[in-house]
Write a structure and sequence with these properties.
Elements: H1 8-29, H2 34-40, H3 51-62, H4 65-81, H5 85-109, H6 131-149, H7 154-177, H8 183-204
Helix pairs in contact: 1-8, 3-7, 4-5, 4-6, 5-6, 5-8, 6-7, 6-8
Length: 214
C-alpha cells in the first residue's frame, strides 16, 4: 500500500472537524451551552438493578475506550500482516491521538460529570469530551477506512458506514441514559473523535476519498 498524496478534501475535513471542536469547546467553557445541557439532561437515570440500567451498564462496559482501542491495535496488526502498512499506522496512531489526546484535553478542561449519574466504573474522571463517544467515532471512521482500502463492494462499504453511524448513536444514547455526560460532552466527543480519526489517516497518508473529491 504505497503512500499517496493527501487530498485537499481530506485536509479540509480534518481542519473542519478541528475548528468545529475548538469552537464547541469554547462555547462549553464559556457556559453558553449550560442551559441546553440542563434542558436535555435525563435527570435521574434508571436504577442500576432495573432492566434498562443493566443493559445500559453492559453496553458501557463493552464500548469502553479500554476495549475499543485494543481492538483497533489488533486490527492494525492484521493490516500490517496484510501489507496494508499505511492503514496499520493510521490505526496505531489512534491510540496516541484519540486515547491520549482525549485524556489530556479532559484533564486540562476539568469538567465534572452530571451529579445524578450512576456510580459506575465506566463513569470515572472528567466528562469532557466523552471518552466513549470519542473512541467509538474513531473506531467507526477507521474501520470504514479499512473497508475502503481493502476495496470492498459499494454495498459492503455503505453497510459498514451505516453500522458505524448506528453504533456511535447507540453509545451516545447509552451515555445519556446513564447520566454519564452532559449533551455537550457527547457532541464534543463526536467532534474530537472525527478530528482524531481523520488526522490519523492524513498523517499515515491513507487516501479514502473518491477521485472526484481529491
Amino acid at each position: 500500500m504505497a503512500r499517496r498524496a493527501i487530498s485537499r478534501f481530506s485536509l479540509l475535513v480534518t481542519a473542519g472537524s478541528l475548528v468545529a471542536f475548538v469552537v464547541w469547546t469554547l462555547l462549553v467553557g464559556a457556559g453558553v451551552l449550560d442551559g441546553l445541557d440542563r434542558r436535555l439532561s435525563i435527570g435521574r437515570p434508571p436504577a442500576l438493578n432495573s432492566p434498562v440500567g443493566q443493559v445500559a451498564s453492559a453496553i458501557a462496559v463493552f464500548t469502553h475506550p479500554f476495549v475499543i482501542y485494543p481492538v483497533l491495535l489488533i486490527l492494525a496488526v492484521w493490516a500490517w500482516r496484510r501489507r496494508l502498512r499505511l492503514m496499520a499506522w493510521a490505526l496505531a496512531f489512534s491510540l496516541v491521538i484519540g486515547a491520549l489526546g482525549r485524556w489530556v484535553i479532559a484533564q486540562v478542561f476539568g469538567r465534572p460529570r452530571p451529579a445524578d449519574g450512576l456510580d459506575l466504573i465506566t463513569q470515572t474522571g472528567f466528562g469532557y469530551p466523552s471518552g466513549h463517544v470519542t473512541a467509538m467515532t474513531v473506531a467507526a471512521i477507521l474501520v470504514t477506512a479499512t473497508v475502503v482500502v481493502t476495496r470492498q463492494s459499494p454495498t459492503v462499504t455503505m453497510g459498514w458506514r451505516a453500522g458505524g453511524i448506528a453504533v456511535i448513536t447507540l453509545v451516545g444514547l447509552d451515555r445519556w441514559v446513564l447520566g454519564a455526560h452532559w449533551f455537550s460532552d457527547l457532541i464534543g466527543g463526536l467532534l474530537f473523535g472525527a478530528f482524531a480519526a481523520t488526522s490519523c489517516l492524513v498523517l499515515a497518508g491513507v487516501k479514502v476519498v473518491p477521485p472526484e473529491l481529491t
